Amino acid sequence: MRIAVLEDDADQLALITRWLEEAEHDVHGYKSGREIMREAARESFDLFVLDWQLPDVSGPEVLKWTREHVSKTTPILFVTGRDSEEDIVFALQQGADDYMVKPARRHELLARVNALLRRAYPRAEQTLLSFPPFEIDTKQGEIRREGAKIELTPKEFELAVTLFRNVGRLISRGYLQEMVWGRAGNLATRTVDTHVSQVRKKLDLRPETGYRVVPVYNYGYRLEQMTVQ
Fold first, then answer.
1. Domain 128-225: which CATH number of 1.10.10.10, 3.20.20.10, 3.65.10.10, 1.10.10.60
2. Which of 36, 90, 137, 169 has the most other CB atoms within 10 Å of its CB?
């Protein structure tokens, strides 16, 4: 999963990043509220980990902005030194999903992160996915439509799985690039667009067949499920 971490202490940021990366998450670290807000406006993340006290915009302000401008459902976990009941209640009432008091402990942090991700993305760990008329087998690397296997390259398959696991969700090109190709800094944006186009054609994703891929200018794509009359 792709996780954004807001922490102005360099050592704490490095520690949390290492724990999450060792758990096979893709982590993007930020040291200021404005920095993470700027990035969240143009990129997709599966979860946010926020500190409270920052040098510019506070964690609760980032939380409020994220809920108003980015997503009302993306999980948000506070990891902070503020331990009063009032602070915890305030953060949860403002839209945070969970709250940890520093010093963070590795196993507890990972358990809380994984619990939030399981609730928010129940399909993420499933190996057999059903999106009639499509059946997706992630172990075999196959997508079938009404029983007939659709020939896809490995990257096209990974891209299709990412889109279907996030059906209805707007996801950025950067997110797709990272999930399918990894952090390949020299990968052209056009490569993502070309692969999306191929997936659309090979799976025949259009309103008449139940699904369509909607491009969002200067951001990314959303796979939408249609109501077929």
1. 1.10.10.10
2. 36
